[in-house]
Amino acid sequence: MGRHTLAEEPVPHPLDPPKRQQGRSETTGSHRIVAAKAPRRRIAKWPIACAGLVVLVALGVFGWNWADSVLNNRAEAQAASCGGNRSTLRLVVTPQVAKPVEAAAKRWDADLTPEHGACFQVDVTTKSSSEVLDALVGKTDLSTIGGLPDGWIPESSYWVTQLTNAKPERIGSPAMPIGSGPPADYPFVGLAGASISGTSTDENQQRATQSFRAYLKEPAQLADFAAAGIRAS
């Protein structure tokens, strides 16, 4: 019988690289199981928008009240600074508008509102348009109408045209109708020039006259004109 010789496994040389073992991976590691991400929940935007709107409204109201308070305090401080030193703003008006203009003058005086650093009270004189025109153009003396007024309200633009043609230097500011009631339009014209005392209408008076003219166009005054049968123009 033949003799079987077992193959001897060669002895590894010390300098040979180590053998890899079969059935094992070169690298070892752990496998991470990644779970499927859950869908994100959407947050409704309208509550955020509503909250932002409420904040904006609140800030607006606060800002408005603050600004109004500052303006009121400033106006009161300016009014207090007038003390008893107030210049007179003289107006001559046709009888048809005397009542509403006098009511407006009382409100103006009660407000004690300075105009361009000066304080004015309004004095209203009632004269016929023909009488005022004669005094302004020099046919009669200015003393017949109490001196040169700062403003004039005749019943019609006809009288302003006559003054412009005869003595244009008397016109301090263009006429502005403050109402209508056929056939009248009640123009308010600012006047300029030397008074019977020789003094001229200064810039502050002219500005105050224009401010009072604008004041006549405010709702409270327009209501008085309407009560007198004069419509807003």
UniProtKB/TrEMBL annotation:
<keyword id="KW-0472">Membrane</keyword>
<protein>
    <recommendedName>
        <fullName>Extracellular solute-binding protein</fullName>
    </recommendedName>
</protein>
<keyword id="KW-1133">Transmembrane helix</keyword>
<keyword id="KW-0812">Transmembrane</keyword>
<feature type="compositionally biased region" description="Basic and acidic residues">
    <location>
        <begin position="1"/>
        <end position="19"/>
    </location>
</feature>
<feature type="transmembrane region" description="Helical">
    <location>
        <begin position="46"/>
        <end position="67"/>
    </location>
</feature>
<feature type="region of interest" description="Disordered">
    <location>
        <begin position="1"/>
        <end position="34"/>
    </location>
</feature>
